[in-house]
Write a structure and sequence with these properties.
- This protein is mostly beta strands.
- The chain has one domain.
- The chain is 7% helix and 52% strand.
- It is built from one helix and eleven strands; from the N terminus they run αβββββββββββ.
- The protein has an eight-stranded antiparallel β-barrel.
- Strand 9 and strand 10 form a beta hairpin.
- The longest helix is centred in the N-terminal third of the chain and has 13 residues.
- The N and C termini lie far apart (57 Å).
Length: 176
């Protein structure tokens, strides 16, 4: 092999770019049906929040055949399934990252406190949701169990609490 051909091969190796592998992320919208952990669900509503450094989406879903209503939150590659609980919690504006509070006899650790704006509302909810509403929130964790706790105050409304857990994306199957 001549020096010219060797140089040509070296240049090919240095400029080689591997093909980009594209993975298909399922598109979830109002009316989408699927399964989470083997349970059928239908998306009733969709909310997109902007926290200034990014966004996350929450889907209000009905689980069949139990007729339970839950939230599926998606932020980047993180998926969380939660449900609202009727528990008292501090106003998220009064919480600080790294602090703790008691709820349901459990110690709850505050991981993140922030403020977001609702940028998209689609579908049906058991309460009124509006674009441009400010939401104060705290993302927390029950120290003993590791379950997630979200404390939200939407606009001037009451403090709402949801408890859930992260789930693998592979546990979600979109049917249509």
């Amino acid at each position: 092999m001549s020096i010219f051909n060797r140089l040509k091969n070296i240049l090919k190796q240095k400029t080689y770019k591997p093909k980009e592998i594209k993975t298909k992320t399922p598109i979830i919208g109002v009316g989408t049906m699927g399964r989470i952990g083997g349970l059928n669900f239908t998306v009733l509503g969709k909310i997109v929040y902007d926290w200034g450094g990014g966004s996350w989406t929450e889907y209000y879903i009905e689980i069949m055949p139990t007729n339970e209503f839950k939230w599926l939150a998606v932020e980047g590659t993180t998926y969380e399934l939660s449900e609202e609980v009727d528990e008292a919690a501090p106003d998220p504006k009064n919480l600080r990252e790294g602090s703790t509070f008691e709820m349901m006899g459990e110690k709850v650790y505050v991981e993140e406190v922030g403020r977001a704006t609702i940028t998209l509302v689609e579908g049906e909810f058991p309460f009124e949701m509006r674009v441009n509403t400010v939401v104060n929130y705290a993302d927390c964790e029950i120290e003993r169990t590791g379950k997630t706790v979200t404390v939200e105050k939407i606009g001037d409304g009451a403090v709402e609490v949801s408890i859930g857990e992260e789930i693998p994306k592979s546990s979600i199957e979109i049917l249509g």
